[in-house]
Amino acid sequence: MTFGAGGSTRERTLETVVEIQAEGHAAAPHISCIGSSKAEITEMLERYRASGIRHIVALRGDLPSGAASAGELRHANELVALIRAATGDWFRIEVACYPEVHPQARSAREDLDNFKRKLDAGADSAITQYFYNADAYLRFVDECEARGIGVPIVPGIMPIGNFAQLARFSDACGAEIPRWLRMRMQGFGDDVGAIRACGLDVVTELCRRLLEQGAPGLHFYTMNQAALTREIWQRLGLS
Question: How far, in Å, CA of 57 to CA of 12, rounded?
């Protein structure tokens, strides 16, 4: 299980993660560095370590609305370096990467350079932004291997429930929805059942192809809606 932390929700998230870990589940909290001080992050890391948590997802994050300062750390590679300096090899650190290029990157090459900096700082593996074009992921993995990057790169999977909401989010974060998929979904209008049925077929086939092509696993962005993910697991024979 993974959980985000940052801003005013940091303490509440930390307590929730610790409770879940105490119940015997493997929790992997997300830590974002924007808007946080080194002291705050170090304290959080120590509390996670004291609770037996061994897995961290390290992200840059976004500046909270109304915040005046980005804090002491501005990039995810700086956060990874801080985690390693403060805790050594205690945590397995995962970072984000972008098969379809981060929306703020000036080029694909620059984006890959940024990804490599996180790994050079001490990250162990990566989770991608979600996508619906398997070839984008496979091409990205090939490009990473050509740069000497050999860490596990886990594809991020977003089940499709509310397509209008997904389209808005995708336009903002730079995740491409293939034209054929967008047109098909728009053709269903407000038919929620048809949208979900089509989404399940499309995403299940995407997952099946990724696993067949050697993806090291799947990371689902459930958006607190577990039913679609559970259905995909069952279709794939993973549950």
Answer: 17
